[in-house]
Amino acid sequence: MSHAITDVKIENPGTLKSTSTLTTGFGICAVVGFIIFLVTLNSDPTRAWSSYLMGHFYFMGLAILAVFFVGIHWMMSAMWSTPVRRIAEGFTAYLPFVAISTIVLLIGLHTLYPWTHPEIVAGDPVLESKVSYLNVTAFIIRAAIAIALWIFFGRSMVKGSLALDDGAPYLGVFNKNKKLGTIFMIVFALSWTWICIDQLKSLDPRWFSTMFGVYQFGAYFQSIFALITLITLLLKWNGYLDRFVNENHLHDLGKYMFAFTVFWAYTAFAQFMLIWYANLPEETGYFLRRLTPGWYNFSVGLFLVKFVVPFLALLPRDNKRLEGLLFCAAAWILGSTFYELIWLVQPEFYPNGPVVGIPEIGTWLGFLGIFGLCFVQFMKRNSVLAYKDARLPEALDHHVF
């Protein structure tokens, strides 16, 4: 199919309307989550900060992978994703709050990370060998650099996309965003890796894994496609995108969810298999904690929840075109990402099994509230569709064979 740029004009579907109910709902989630976090912090700091870390990382991951999605779109001169690109751009509105939530996370470093305790590091040859990397100053510098770069590239590419709505020449925006997207791929690979290592992997500072960044990339790229699918269907059902998103676009979204379900399983298995085969004490402890009686069933459940269910649900071709099934699969995948975060974080603090209750769910809902508010405000100010994108007419005629 040709990728020629056309001058066909598309009617603007408009901005998100009647947002008061959404704003109120997300606002209540944010306030309630904040209160639950503070109450838990007073009674059980470890549980409060571990819950905070899960909520913080969950939505940070979605926001940065949204920038990755936008960057891939421009770098690859994609056509099919044009009708849903604005949705991903809306998720990037959360990035400034990532800076705030990371600053708050710094308050809990001493509770979460053993490497911040000199008495634990002293005399441990493994931890002492990592001091030049695992120290508070380096942690802050890496976080600041990563977030600054994410915000810069995210805002720059979104600014260009929004400029198209105001009549900016397509080729100028395309050439600039293609360069930004290409550079961002390198920036993302480095910054995402060190953020995953710093904020999740270093909960067990003695553990070694060279695949952790790629493993987490698979989880969150799967999740960002799930979130885009979820919002696309909601906007379609409410009359915003019903003329612009057809079953072929949904099929592609379903294919990507399926593909990265498999990719996540591949990287998760490869990481586990290499560590199991090498059987080195500094590596096996991480998985042994997750295979104790208290965590064994939860670990088996992770395989079923994160891989088997979405794999079987999305395997048939027709299922990727069934809107109801696709919506349920996307929601399931997003839930499985939180399930996995519990598996990644809690064994370091609760060796006898998972602890899930009001603090964990409530704090997550607080982050959801802020994420939702950022997205709704973006969509309230900007069209839900990049309706002046020169590739959009071709995208509307997209077919999957």
Model description:
The chain is mainly alpha-helical and 401 residues long. The chain folds into 2 domains: 46-206 and 357-392, no CATH class; 210-356. It is built from 16 helices and no strands. The longest helix is centred in the middle third of the chain and has 32 residues, at 247-278. The protein is globular, with a radius of gyration of 21 Å. The relative contact order is 0.19. The model has no long low-confidence stretch (mean pLDDT 94).
Give the oligomeric state.
single chain
What is the 3D shape?
A: globular
Gyration radius (Cα, Å) is 21 Å
Main β-sheet: number of strands, strand sense, barrel status? none
| Counted beta strands | 0
Secondary-structure element string: HHHHHHHHHHHHHHHH
Précis, in short:
This protein has 401 residues and is an all-alpha fold.
Sum up the structure in keywords:
16 helices, 401 residues, single chain, 2 domains, globular, mainly alpha
SSE arrangement:
Blueprint: H1 20-43, H2 45-75, H3 82-91, H4 95-107, H5 109-112, H6 118-121, H7 125-128, H8 136-165, H9 170-199, H10 212-237, H11 247-278, H12 281-289, H13 293-314, H14 323-345, H15 358-381, H16 392-396
Helix pairs in contact: 1-2, 1-15, 2-3, 2-4, 2-8, 2-9, 2-10, 2-14, 2-15, 4-8, 8-9, 9-10, 10-11, 10-14, 11-13, 13-14
